[in-house]
Design goal:
Length: 178
């Protein structure tokens, strides 16, 4: 009988130990049961430098199973920082809470770039900035070979933070208008 009770105590301890593990085989879920947010770049999975040319791929897929809480794009480009400053914007564009950034980007993209409520609480968003990037080649002081880095910083409604940098290189500038 003593052996049986000892055996049952060991089995009970093992069952308790394994049932308390957090993972439960769900590597893509956090403690709330929602999935961990991701930023994917189909066709450029390694987030390599992308040329701004006829084959430009600038479509990111943002997934946040708990919903997007904050969404900021940090711009690291001397040329673009000057342009943004001239428009009264900073190099950190809050695409959910900053009305000036939302209106400016809406006008520049014909309202095709998701901002505001098209980002807030969304669980999946197609974020394509190709239309904005091609405008870089038309700026008067842009140089061929210059690189422009955009870092997407987002937080989901569970407080999980994620940041991914995308760098684009100008390979050819537009001819100046005469």
């Amino acid at each position: 009988m003593k052996r049986f009770l000892t055996f049952m105590a060991m089995v009970s301890a093992i069952v308790t130990l394994f049932s308390c593990e957090k993972d439960n085989g769900k590597d893509n879920e956090n403690e709330t049961g929602h999935g961990i947010p991701t930023i994917e770049w189909p066709g450029n999975e390694d987030f390599d430098v992308m040329d701004i040319d006829d084959n430009l791929n600038a479509k990111l897929v943002i997934k946040a199973p708990a919903g997007i809480s904050t969404f900021v794009v940090a711009v690291d480009s001397e040329l673009l920082e000057e342009v943004l400053s001239g428009m009264g914007l900073t190099d950190r564009l809050d695409l959910i809470n900053d009305p000036a950034a939302i209106i400016t980007l809406s006008l520049a993209t014909g309202d095709t770039l998701p901002t505001g409520s098209k980002l807030k609480d969304q669980t999946e968003v197609q974020f394509d900035i190709a239309g904005l990037l091609t405008l870089i080649t038309e700026l008067p002081d842009v140089e061929s070979g210059s690189e422009h880095k955009f870092t997407v910083e987002m937080t989901d409604n569970d407080g999980n933070e994620l940041s991914k940098a995308c760098t684009f290189r100008v390979v050819e500038t537009a001819e100046p208008a005469e």
